[in-house]
Amino acid sequence: xxxxxxxxxxxxxxxxxxxxxxxxxxxxxxxxxxxxxxxxxxxxxxxxxxxxxxxxxxxxxxxxxxxxxxxxxxxxxxxxxxxxxxxxxxxxxxxxxxxxxxxxxxxxxxxxxxxxxxxxxxxxxxxxxxxxxxxxxxxxxxxxxxxxxxxxxxxxxxxxxxxxxxxxxxxxxxxxxxxxxxxxxxxxxxxxxxxxxxxxxxxxxxxxxxxxxxxxxxxxxxxxxxxxxxxxxxxxxxxxxxxxxxxxxxxxxxxxxxxxxxxxxxxxxxxxxxxxxxxxxxxxxxxxxxxxxxxxxxxxxxxxxxxxxxxxxxxxxxxxxxxxxxxxxxxxxxxxxxxxxxxxxxxxxxxxxxxxxxxxxxxxxxxxxxxxxxxxxxxxxxxxxxxxxxxxxxxxxxxxxxxxxxxxxxxxxxxxxxxxxxxxxxxxxxxxxxxxxxxxxxxxxxxxxxxxxxxxxxxxxxxxxxxxxxxxxxxxxxxxxxxxxxxxxxxxxxxxxxxxxxxxxxxxxxxxxxxxxxxxxxxxxxxxxxxxxxxxxxxxxxxxxxxxxxxxxxxxxxxxxxxxxxxxxxxxxxxxxxxxxxxxxxxxxxxxxxxxxxxxxxxxxxxxxxxxxxxxxxxxxxxxxxxxxxxxxxxxxxxxxxxxxxxxxxxxxxxxxxxxxxxxxxxxxxxxxxxxxxxxxxxxxxxxxxxxxxxxxxxxxxxxxxxxxxxxxxxxxxxxxxxxxxxxxxxxxxxxxxxxxxxxxxxxxxxxxxxxxxxxxxxxxxxxxxxxxxxxxxxxxxxxxxxxxxxxxxxxxxxxxxxxxxxxxxxxxxxxxxxxxxxxxxxxxxxxxxxxxxxxxxxxxxxxxxxxxxxxxxxxxxxxxxxxxxxxxxxxxxxxxxxxxxxxxxxxxxxxxxxxxxxxxxxxxxxxxxxxxxxxxxxxxxxxxxxxxxxxxxxxxxxxxxxxxxxxxxxxxxxxxxxxxxxxxxxxxxxxxxxxxxxxxxxxxxxxxxxxxxxxxxxxxxxxxxxxxxxxxxxxxxxxxxxxxxxxxxxxxxxxxxxxxxxxxxxxxxxxxxxxxxxxxxxxxxxxxxxxxxxxxxxxxxxxxxxxxxxxxxxxxxxxxxxxxxxxxxxxxxxxxxxxxxxxxxxxxxxxxxxxxxxxxxxxxxxxxxxxxxxxxxxxxxxxxxxxxxxxxxxxxxxxxxxxxxxxxxxxxxxxxxxxxxxxxxxxxxxxxxxxxxxxxxxxxxxxxxxxxxxxxxxxxxxxxxxxxxxx
Length: 1256
Known about the structure:
Layout: H1 2-6, H2 13-17, E1 21-25, E2 35-36, E3 44-51, E4 59-71, E5 80-88, E6 98-105, E7 114-120, E8 124-130, E9 136-142, E10 153-160, E11 164-169, E12 172-178, E13 187-192, E14 196-198, E15 201-203, E16 212-220, H3 226-233, H4 250-260, E17 276-282, E18 286-289, E19 292-293, E20 336-340, E21 345-352, E22 357-362, E23 370-375, E24 381-391, E25 394-399, E26 408-416, E27 424-431, H5 442-451, E28 459-463, E29 484-489, E30 516-524, E31 537-545, E32 548-560, E33 566-575, E34 582-588, H6 595-598, E35 602-608, H7 610-632, H8 643-658, H9 663-672, H10 693-716, H11 728-733, H12 737-742, H13 747-763, E36 767-768, E37 771-772, E38 776-777, H14 786-795, H15 800-813, E39 817-819, E40 825-827, E41 831-832, E42 845-846, H16 855-863, H17 867-881, E43 891-895, E44 901-905, H18 914-926, H19 933-942, H20 954-957, H21 961-972, H22 977-987, H23 991-1011, H24 1026-1033, E45 1049-1053, E46 1062-1070, E47 1073-1080, E48 1086-1092, E49 1098-1107, E50 1115-1125, E51 1130-1135, E52 1140-1150, E53 1160-1161, E54 1167-1170, E55 1173-1180, E56 1189-1194, ...
Parallel strand pairs: 17-33, 28-29
Antiparallel strand pairs: 1-2, 1-16, 3-4, 4-13, 4-16, 5-10, 5-16, 6-7, 6-13, 7-8, 8-9, 10-11, 11-12, 14-15, 17-26, 18-19, 18-20, 20-25, 21-24, 21-26, 22-23, 22-25, 27-28, 27-35, 29-34, 30-33, 30-35, 31-32, 31-34, 36-37, 38-41, 39-40, 42-43, 43-44, 45-48, 46-47, 47-52, 48-51, 49-50, 49-52, ...
Pfam family, one: Laminin_G_3
Protein name: LamG-like jellyroll fold domain-containing protein
Organism: Caulobacter henricii
């Protein structure tokens, strides 16, 4: 720590004479660095241990899932540097690439936030650094032969924003890329972690699992010459002199000017023509990319950008062998950023970042769009002065090159004017000769030393009259460097350093100030410095956020003339200050600019009444917190050792400090703290008199789930079909869609939404031979559209497009599900895709999440009994059962090649419920009770609540009420949701459901704003509906990652009736018998369709009547009828208003399983019309060959107007589509509107839902 403080505004003699060694870890002190300009002790370490046989002395070894990360500030710099170490693979490398070393950004909009990476690329080494435009300056080197597992290889990588990058292997140049770019950025951590090192996560997981050995890790502050690298490869010291960067160097000068936007000599920042100028920072009221809230181009943090990052990026160097599955961006995002303006004038826009394109403005309420200007490519910063001031409306930036980012876009209102009188002012003078050693400046000096190279650390202090201080010694004065000055203003002067006289009878500062900071006035002195830019000296002024110095409150560019004093009144967004000190920077294009040029500068802090300042403070802190938490929820980070969580904590604390009763702030804090401090008070909605409480609360619960799903469809789904989560995360979100639609809520709208997303995944090229196009881990292969294909079948049952997509996936899965040498069927890889399957080393283990991708096989096995799908499920279950231990347990992971086991039991780690889906499916496919053994073993270990991971009503399906009932009802009293539902099943006491629904209403209400307008990552938003499904459907149709459908029935209501208008309970839900309680909450009769799903097929008896006394029994006369009931067959019911109907259903005579029948189908995309010719594709989808049939063309009145025979078709036993094509001719004058096509056959079919389709 002391080393970092020493570097603040100083440089040792050694740093002028030789490349500065910022960090050196020899391994001789374990994981503690021998030399560190920042922190020497790791920020995180796990499963990393010292080894005695390093390359030279001791080194360290990382397990495959090991991590070690050191804090980057002070220890490594972004603009330029060298990284070197000895590496040993430990076991043979193969074709699978893996990460050897990482450096992470201090903040970013990409998930992995990788600034620098060195990889084994499968044949050699790759290395890159990431510039401010998200592009990667990358080099790649192929070895003649792979290194031996026990051999040490020396790797060195250098980077410089003025030249490019170079990779050295064993001391020799291997690859080089010459490229100029802006690398200046804050860095967070560096080290060994295969998956991510970032301010929100440090992790080795999923397919990112590969350890190894390292030794003699060194980081330098500049690129080393080849001779120096060669010396390091011999572990010899390097002491070649190198100067501090100065503007006298043409390359440094060019890079400096590009960074600040001073590279265009005829387009310098606007001149401060008036003696005093007011610059008002105007905050946008909204920022959207398509429909996604995108606060990252106006958050004041240069490392964050609009847009985020794509996994198959178009940007240089980004699309490599690691295509991350989760990317929080629309497919068509990154084209246009739309920023809404308040009802306040602006006349200047300043943009940082490489995006180039057109700026336009559209008035509020619409109207003619005005072009404001065009931004050229290859720029770091630009200033656009508007010809006419704007107020309100929307500013749009339209990218010429999609994805190219904006770091910051600031809106200002600039005019001649003085600072206001304010409530009061505090005045300071820059003292270049004063030592900035007040204790309350220590954190800021540490930040400066960690963030900036030696040449950019000139630091001065601004003091009020009479402040105690001591003169700066010559030895500690700022070194010659680049023209930037860090100005520190102490928040008080009680935090004095030691060894000074006692100060008395004087105090000055803003600690505990009531009022809010309105802005800062700076009297820029007459700069007596030469300029190379004609008459002007460009300046950049940044005011840092006092609680987070990596964020600017204002960042503005201006120009002055030498010898001409000017005042700028920086009208900030109001802040009610903490006791943190203030920090601002001034930078210039002139190499004569520095601390002495600013000596005597006057700075005034202007405060306004607290009540006037509170609004902007609260609004900004809430948005800052909201944006951060929307990102952090992806990893659920809660450690203050992680930068993003520290920033979240600072913003939230500052929000609640000023507005402790902020409703949404308190709701967020409840979520962030996992409810440990309770939640804001909540008042339950009251049931109308005469309405059963269970019915009212179920309806209220369902309304909130409906509100949530409808919000995401209406407010986030794009025309392309995605929701802004890269489709992959979106498909996680939409696992909530089928259950809601099957409960009778907006079924057509939800089905359309789901189809649009599934189609988008295919349109976006996310499939190759049925598997994901990208190569990814065992969990995320499922989330690359395979799950949305599976979801589609729930609401498009029998649709040929949905069925055949799943057939293709099952066929593709046969490449990764294979019988191993031990004769067991297992997954042969946990890192695969349609193009590549890695079958080596740590990637040959099946894991709990591996089984999720079998969702299509499960659904095909239930749909048409597909033999290959069933064989895959049953074979995997048999393979798993073969690993039962003597104590009855089952392993967590199984190695395909060796049949070895690891990871403890299947109860440990994430995804424990996933293998249970396979065992239950195998049981349902075979009726063999041995597949229940793992389920019962899990119940023995974890209790009967564990069957909540199975969608069916297992309690009754396995006749376990007697065995499990006492445990479940006892635990229901302590508030377990599933236990409450089970307690109702067992006791019939609906008070259990009333409490269950009440808790869900409360939870849903308190989370609604976060899960909608909070714009979280789309895979992190969920409102529980599984117990509503169990209530209304007799089982859960689908919950995320619970695969085997468990619903007995589904519902659909006529006319204007909404699903929420009818409360429904299914009692004693079994395939052969169940009872429905349906309470119509409306004042009119409701026509309801109840469709069978998980029921036994055959002839059923239905008895319907009313329950007039709430005892769940039929009272009075009942209607009785016999009917055919099976999967996809519908029963029409009439539900009288304001009453509870009882419908008793019982199987009378069993019938044949529809899954064993033939099935002809026609559906989406099967019909084309040209002139009067209607061409139709007919599909065979069943278990049996389809006989010849007939296709009728029907008009809106139901009349057949044309017919044609259809050919006989084979069953798709080979999992390949079986399609016949026919053509009908319609009357020439007939319009397609209202026309439908209907298949007619006497052959028993799996379903009639795919017999009819509209003519487009």
